[in-house]
Predict the 3D structure of the following.
Amino acid sequence: MLLLLLLLRFSGAGVRMKGGLRLVVLLMLSVESSSLSPPGKPVLLGCRSPEKETFTCWWKPGLDGGLPTVHRLYYEREQLEGTHECPDYRSAGSNSCFFDKNHTYIWVDYHVMVEASNALGNVPSDPLKFDVMEIVRPYAPENVTLMVEEKQESPYLHIRWKHPSNTVSRSGWITIKYQLRVKQENSNDWKNYTSGTQMGFSLYSIHPGAVYEVQVRCTLDHSSWSEWSNTTFVKIPNYLQNERPFGILVSIFSTIPVVAALCVLVTKRKYVKRFLLPPVPGPKIRGVDVQLLKSGKSEDVLGALIVNQNFPPMVARKDQMEEYLIVSDGGEWLLPAPLKSQKKKKSSFIPAGFHLDSQCKESTPSQVQENKDEMKSSSNLEQKQEFSGINFAAADLQKGASENFMQRLPNSGYVDIQRQENIVEVDGILVDYSRVKEVNGDNVFILQKENVPLSLDVQRREESMSEDYSRVKEVNGDNVVLLQKQNGSDDSFCTEKGNRYTHCTNQTQRNPHMTGLSKIGVCTDLSSDGYVDTIPAPSLI
Amino acid sequence: MAQRRTNGSKLLMTVLCVVAACRAVPVTDLLDRASQRSDRLHSLSTMLTQELKMPEMAPLCLTISAAFSVQVVTNSPSRLQDSHFPPIGRVIMPRPAMCHTSSLQTPNDKEQALQVSESDLLSLARSLLRAWVDPLLVLSSSANTLPHPAQNSISNKIQELQEHSKSLGDGLNVLSGKMGPAAQTMSLLPYRGGNDLGQDKISKLINFQFLLSCLRRDSHKIDSFLKVLRCRAARMQPEMC
C-alpha cells in the first residue's frame, strides 16, 4: 500500500498520467487494507513420547492473518509452579515443541497450549491435558530381516528385527512387546502373530515359491501401538522334492519282503499250523470202531470186540477135553453103523474127572458087544450121554469135533496103555487089556499087572469065539450074572468080574449124574439065548 | 546426600545378594512373578479407561463443561483454574492430581527412579497397592449398576483387578520380608471418597472414570518400580531388563 502511495506522488509530479492507471492502483489499495487480522487459531495436534523419557508436541497453525505470526507453546505442570514456555522449538521440526529428559516428568499432568500471535493479537489454541504415561507411543521396529531357513527338510521363515532406534538403555524402565503380521503377495488377508518381548519369530507354514510380506509393530508398557514397519518382501525358493521319491522307493522295497513273507505264510498256513500246533494223537483202540461206539449199540460193539480179539479156537480146546484113546484092532471091531452114528451124535465134553468112570460103563443091555472097543466106546458114549447135561457151551463145536474123535488119540486124562504089553492074541486077534488091581478113590484104578495066563484067555477067548459060552452060576438082580467057569480060573475071573462089577457099581453109585444106564454095571452081556458071552476083563485105558 | 544414597544402595544390594543366595526361592524369581502380576494389573486398568472413553462420553463432557456444577471427589483443591485459560471450552474433568494417592512422593522420571533404593521402591509399590484395596471395593460395587453399555465387561475386569491386586500384595509382603526392615515400611493413604460414587448418573460415571484414571497411574507406577527392581536384581540375566 505504501508503494502505491509513492507511485501516485511520483505520477502526480508528471502531470497528465493515464487515468486508467490511477484507478487500478486505488483498487489494489482498497483490497489490501481488509486482510490484516490477528492470526488464526492454531490447533494442537498431539504429543507423543516414544521412550517414556522425552516427548514432543505438534500443532497446526491457523490462518496467517496477513501479519507475521509467531506461535508459542505454554505449558503447566503438576507439582510445578507457573506457566512455562516450550524449551525447544527446533529439534522436532517446525510447529513442534520438544521436551527433553530434563523437562519430562511422568505421572504428572501437563497442560499444554499453543498461542499464535501477530501484530494484531494473540490467539490461543485449545489446551491439551495429558500425562506422559498416556502419550507414550514407540516408533516402529527397525531392520526387519527375513531369512528362509530349513529344518528337517521343511523350510520355514525366520523373521528378525531390532528395537526402535531411540530405546537403547536396558535398565528395566521400559518393556516393549512386539507384534507382526504376514501375508502373501496376492492376497489381502493379514495374519497377526504376537511375539512378546522377543525380537525374532519363526513362521513354519509357508509355501515354497510364494512371496511373503512382513510387517512388525510394538507397544511400550501397554501403550498405543506403533506404526507398522516398512514392508519386507521375501520369496520362498522352490525346493526340489528329490528326497521324497527316494524315501518312497526305500519304503516300497522294504515292504516287499514283508508282503512276500506274509503271502508265503498264508498259502502254507496248514504247514505252519502243523508246525506250531502239532496234532494231538487221538485215542485208538484196536477193533473199536468209533462210529459204532457213537451209535450206542453195545451189543454190536461187544460183538465187534469179540470178533477182533482172535480168541483161540474152541475146536482145539474141545479136542483137548474130549479126546481119548481110541484103540482099534482092525476093521472087524469096527462099530456098526448106527453105533457110529450114535457116537457121532452123542459127543460131549467129558470132564477129566469122569474118565475112568466112563470106562466101567457098558452100553445098553440091548446091545451085545463082544468088542472091547465097543464096550469102551459105548460106555464112553454112555458117559458122554450122561454127561451131556454137563456139556459146555459151543455145542456146534462138539458136533464138529465128534467126527474126528475116532481118529484122534487122547493125550490127557486117559491112562495110556501101551499096546505092546498087554496084547493078547485071542483067536488071532490082538486084544489089549489089563486088570484092575485096586481102586483108590473115585477115579484111580491101579492096574494089576499079572501074568494072565494067556492060554487061559486065549482059551477063553477061543471058547468065547467059537462056542463062547459058559454056564451061569448066579444071577443077581436084573443084570448081574455070575458065570460059572469050568476051571478055577473062570471063577476067579468071574469073581474078578464080580469084583469089577462091584467096583463098577460102587462107581456108579458114587456118580449121581448117572442116569438110567448107571445101573448097568454088569461086566457081561446077556445073550438072548441064555448064554452069556464072557467078555474078558476090559482093559483099562 | 547422593553419596549416602549410593552407599546405602550398595549395601542393600549386597544384602539382597546374600539374602538371595541363602533362600530357597531366589528373589529374582519372586520379582519376576510380581512384575508379571503388576503388568497384568496395568493392562487391565488401561483397557478399562479405554472402554470407558467411548464416543458417547464426548457429549457428556461438553454438558459438564457447560454446567460447572459437578461435585468432584477430591482431596485437594484443583490448581488448574487459572485465569490464563478461559474456563469456556474447558472440559472440567477431575484429573488424577486429585487422587487420594497423590500425596505419596514418588520418582517422576527415569533418573529419579533409577536412583531410588530397592527397599524404597518396594515400599512405594506396597503402599500404593495397599491404598487401592478399599477403592476397588467401591468400584466393584458401583460397576454392577453402572449406566454404561459395556458394564458387564467392566465389571468382569474390575473383578479380575481385585484378584490380581490381592495376590500381588501377598507376593510383595513375602518379598519385603526378604529385603530387610527398610522395605517393610509403608505409607498410609486412606481413601475418603465414601462408599458411593454419586447420586445421579452423570456424577457416577464421572467419578467412576476419575477413579479409574487414578488407578491407571498408580498401577503404572507399581509396574515400573517392580520392573526396575527386577532388572536390578538380575544382573546376570539381561533379558529381565
User: Anything to note?
Assistant: Chain A touches chain B through 29 residues (CB under 8 Å).
